[in-house]
Amino acid sequence: MLALFGLLAVPGRLHALPGDGGRARVVAEAQKLLAQRIREHGGANRGPQVDALIKEAGGQMGQPWCSWSVVVEFRRAGIKAPRFGRARDWFDKVHTVWRAGRQVLSRPPPQPGDVVGFTWGAAVIGHVELLIAWGTGPSARCIGGNTGGGGALQREGEGMYENWRLKRMIAAVANVVDNPKY
């Protein structure tokens, strides 16, 4: 955990985690899921680990599971997250702190534990990941389910991976930790 404070974004320093522990717990749960090396088997959003994760979150087998992985991370951290199977549902006016490359006025900047949304060419947000580090540089570090590894910019992947994402590719960021009610 302490190592998280000393990491550098490329380039720039990270924002420190708040002292309430909620954000640290969500990040820790994402890292635990990452350590399980969750992967699909045979594609189509299926596999023993993927099915178990979707079931725990309250979804239906075979659904895209990026959002379900975020639900599980929040719930395991003790934060009553909504049961959102669709990525775009996280980003309403109350929770969105970053949109279209800018911080929303009177809102805190993106922080570890926030939900990061991507459109990747679509009209609406179709993929979410959990923010691990938001630095002063051009990149943010995220952990996401149903994505690809090695920095792959793909909406539909086969596993749970940690990737650096260019901030200019991020459509929106939502703060759920500080206000989990939707």
UniProtKB/TrEMBL annotation:
Where does the source fall among the domains of life?
A: Bacteria
One short Pfam name that applies is CHAP
The residues covered by the Peptidase C51 domain are 60-134
InterPro entries hit by this protein: CHAP_dom (IPR007921), Papain-like_cys_pep_sf (IPR038765)
How is this protein named in the record?
CHAP domain-containing protein
